Amino acid sequence: MLEADGLRKRYGDTVALDGVSLKVGPGEMFGFVGANGAGKTTTMRIIMGVLSADGGEVRWNGKQAGHEIRRRFGYMPEERGLYAKMRVAEQIEYFGTLAGMSAQAAHRSSDALIERLGLTERRDDHVDTLSLGNQQRVQLAVALIHEPEVLVLDEPFSGLDPIAVDALAGVLAERVSAGVPVVFSSHQLDLVEQLCDSVGIIKGGRMIAGGTVAELRARESRKRLRMVVTGAAPGWIDRLPGEIIAKTDRPPQGDPAVEDHDSYDEVILAPSDDQEALRVAAQAGRVRHFAWQEPSLAEIFREVVA
């Protein structure tokens, strides 16, 4: 169990962290989300010992995390932490030896990671000649080289194409299945929702919401209806009871259920009366879809930080 308990950090008059706490169990992937400057990177740097906290502590399996414990952690910073003129394989092995591995063990582990991350054809290239995606793969290999007991990753998917995202996600899933706790921050909330067992939302240095995505959805204050109506006259949406969260008059491309001559209205509604909403929609036109909709993590995020 990785625990951060009541972390506090101040820079002059600026409060960067105000009592941030989180827990990540074995084999759990924790998504850390928040706006720029909310405190994600500061929290991760304190967990890794790169920064010292003004208050609170970091524990691993109940023991306060000192230097020797943190050597068993793997860290991927948002900024590149690589030597640009070193070759890929040489670089990964070098970081393995810094983590205390023998040269032979670092070589074996590096070879396995290079193959797993699709870097075989780039193993002898200098880092500064690689694409952003391949540099991210090297950075992840550096974090994984010593088989860490914890992974802390700051924006690991930033700027990656879908193939690179899948490769990194697959490697992280393997580590999670082996029981490694993983903490990663991301602005890509769809990825957080897809990959993570639990989520923490931070704002202004304070953790304002946390739990599984299902638990966060259960706290959402507004239930949402999604309805699709075709053939309705303009203005019918104004008669719906409740708050209009979103609406569009553009059908999905290639949707065979919507004829070209039909008007199309898609509405996301927080209804005050769902049965009245159905009655209004049915009187206005043909109801193609009418169902409760679970909010996405992005919608939950907007709700709780507002």
Automatic annotation (TrEMBL):
It is a peripheral membrane protein. Pfam families: ABC_tran, DrrA1-3_C. Residues 2-229 form the ABC transporter domain. Its main location: membrane. Transmembrane segments: none annotated. It is found in: Cell membrane. InterPro entries: AAA+_ATPase, ABC_transporter-like_ATP-bd, ABC_transporter-like_CS, ABC_transporter_ATP-binding, DrrA1/2-like_C, P-loop_NTPase. Keywords: Antibiotic resistance, ATP-binding, Nucleotide-binding, Transport. One of its GO terms (molecular function) is ATP binding. It comes from the Bacteria. Belongs to the ABC transporter superfamily. This is ATP-binding cassette domain-containing protein.
